[in-house]
């Protein structure tokens, strides 16, 4: 039975499972919490510029909330699998679905954004477009698959690298998570040359060539269904759908709440959109309206409605997952859970359309995306030409630039591809503030010693 082989205690770095008060999957959660990559999310833009006079979500608070929602989804689905397939499950699997699936989903949700660079999606765009714009000078240094990685740079693929790659002078296996948790964040389990719009598991790509062997080990250990060997394409792991749903639920709803706190969205617009979704799911909203009659603080009213909406979407996601469970197991489902929901209920689509129009295209959001794009692009331009110059040919300014690269990101005796990935590791791992400060210093905008 496939349900018995969807999980493993094996982790990167060939570290064996241990007997302790915590399960291996709880240890995954804790390792992520204590990792530097996770801490840096506190100063990476989610949507709105950081910092501001009003506290809004950053990548870290977003990830914590996604993890909370993911735990609820994992718990409900674990119960569903145990109750409906108990006779097909071996003893180990019964224990896993009853007591550990929710830990896996919570851990995967916690680290789903660790590969995202500073400044949101504009940071990703800056890295990819750097190589596109310099194709004439750079393309010949890489093979076809390596070049595809660079011109299609993707936060999801970078997350696998951040969590598994052994940096210079550091321990093997990166964060040393279980293959189960790593498989659960692989929304696009294919290599870059296989990406194809319109196909859910190939919309983007899930691993760099440098981590291909690691990903193949992950896929083998949790029995991912392989669609193609060349190019390498797998179907999604069944747990991925829950991580994706948790993320979709949070950003669709919480971005609205942030926009309201910032005065970008009016209280009436936000209330009406949230109430419409609650009404479409629950029918009778008298209890909700009675509660609102008591609450006079606008932010408190929106927070209450946000909680009700998230609860409704969690319940709907669980229902759809259960209804389409066999399609998910067989790798034939072709739409995200919330996209299926939008077909039957336009309320969520209305919230998304409103967000695109009023929030994601707001002047402040566009300004930070433009600024972030330029900062990230110029940082790459400062480091990549020197790292690709032969040691004997480097000028003094090349050497000075590379002195700013921490040693763990330097791979001097490696291929050009690996050298460039080292630079990308450094730049993509930066917080918004660190990237901005370094940019200002190397451009001569800020001169003087700072600590």
Automatic annotation (TrEMBL):
Claim: Cell division is one of the keywords in the record: no
Residues in HD/PDEase domain copies: 55-261
Pfam hit, one: HD
BP-aspect Gene Ontology terms: dGTP catabolic process
Enzyme Commission code(s) on record: 3.1.5.1
Name of the coding gene: dgt
Gene3D superfamilies: eoxyguanosinetriphosphate triphosphohydrolase domain-like (1.10.3550.10), Hypothetical protein af1432 (1.10.3210.10), putative deoxyguanosinetriphosphate triphosphohydrolase like domain (1.10.3410.10)
Name of this chain's protein: Deoxyguanosinetriphosphate triphosphohydrolase
Organism: Chryseobacterium salivictor
MF GO annotations: dGTPase activity
Top-rank lineage group of the source organism: Bacteria
Class of enzymatic activity (EC top level): hydrolase
Keywords: Hydrolase
